Amino acid sequence: MAGARKPAALEEPGLEQVGLGALEHSAGLMLRIAQLTAFERFFALFGESEIKISEFTVLMAVAENPGIRQGVLADVLKIKWSNMTKLVRTLEERGLVARHVPRHDRRSVVLSPTDEGRRQIEKSGEKMYRLDREALSMLTDAEHDQLIALTRKIAGWPPISER
Amino acid sequence: MAGARKPAALEEPGLEQVGLGALEHSAGLMLRIAQLTAFERFFALFGESEIKISEFTVLMAVAENPGIRQGVLADVLKIKWSNMTKLVRTLEERGLVARHVPRHDRRSVVLSPTDEGRRQIEKSGEKMYRLDREALSMLTDAEHDQLIALTRKIAGWPPISER
DNA sequence: TATTGTTATACTCTATAACTATA
DNA sequence: TATAGTTATAGAGTATAACAATA
């Protein structure tokens, strides 16, 4: 393997000398670069795993909202419905999530965690949060909170204080 | 088309009632959701275009750093070398960027904008920055600056004040 | 008619590894 | 031996549209 062996900005010394000019004030671009950096670090720490982060995230969200409609969950997590179908099916096949068609609206599908799903969360949840924080360890706690507040606002979610 | 017709959090009223619990304190997840939201809004505003955002970003970066090595640029923008090759070639074929092999290290390729490339920047640059800002119009100017500062730090770039 | 979810598929993006040329 | 870039391809992620069932 050649090419792209280095974690870029982490090691390479002269990298910060590359200016992007006005481009550095593009919050969209910076948001993307930051997200890629954070995920790169997270995956490096997380390593191989039997459950994907996207799947685990859905599992956690279901556990937080037992009985949530599948489509609503997809919208919140910005996952397309068509892709959510496959993702949820995977979780169902592994016995982590149960699907249920409610009587009052039989078009819909509501989700809830199984006991095994809850066990999986107990098992992997702590690790995930720890590594998530570690991937962003360059931020102080205050900056971390700032980031949460800003990203919530961008996503159109209410401030934490108001909930 | 069915499924996912709504821009999620933008229209749907009851969406903010879905809590994600501890998951909402995952800066990694929030960073991703925010980035997706911002890009969704940006693309909705930007519409169809003859040049892709990724291509335009590279063009801008080259114009800011004439003579930059292709691999360095790839690292900065978090694009894999193999993918950068194709991207730069596209820009070259359109006559926007010129590739040059320097005498002192003939393994490398350095990039510079053509006159046509500079024209393209002049033509699309203003629009891009305006829409980029508009996609994040839910933030105040102060919050926007905060976001730039935080994302720079995450990316491992020096604070703007120090440059 | 509109909505919820599914299916199939196309498309784009990203990742991986082998390769050439140069240092 | 190491580095810069290329090529081909695999793989993941995402998007699109037609569809069935229900409201």
Report on the architecture of this protein.
Two copies of one chain form a homodimer. Chain A is mostly helical. Chain A has a domain at 53-123: Arc Repressor Mutant, subunit A. Helix content of chain A is 55%, strand content 6%. Chain A is built from six helices and three strands. Chain A has helices spanning 27-46, 53-64, 70-77, 81-93, 115-135, 141-155; strands spanning 68-69, 97-100, 110-113. In chain A, strands 1-3-2 form a three-stranded antiparallel beta sheet. The longest helix of chain A is centred in the last third of the chain and has 21 residues, at 115-135. The radius of gyration of chain A is 19 Å and the shape is globular. Chain A starts with 26 loop residues before the first helix and ends in an 8-residue tail after the last helix. The interface between A and B is large, with 78 and 77 residues. The structure holds a DNA duplex (23 and 23 nucleotides).
Question: Structural class from helices and strands of chain A?
Answer: mainly alpha
End-to-end distance of chain A, in Å? 50 Å
Fraction of residues in H or I helices of chain A? 40-55%
Query: How many DSSP H or I helices of chain A?
Result: 6
The CATH homologous superfamily of the domain at 53-123 in chain A is named Winged helix-like DNA-binding domain superfamily/Winged helix DNA-binding domain
Q: How large is the radius of gyration of chain A?
A: 19 Å
Uncertain stretches of 5 or more adjacent residues of chain A: 1-14
The pair of chains with the biggest contact is: A-B, 78 and 77 residues
Quaternary structure state of the chains depicted: homodimer
From the 3D structure, determine the CATH topology of the domain at 53-123 in chain A.
Arc Repressor Mutant, subunit A
Number of strands of chain A: 3
Strand order of the largest sheet of chain A: 1-3-2
Average pLDDT of chain A: 88
Order of helical and strand elements of chain A: HHEHHEEHH
Describe the biggest sheet of chain A? 3 strands, antiparallel
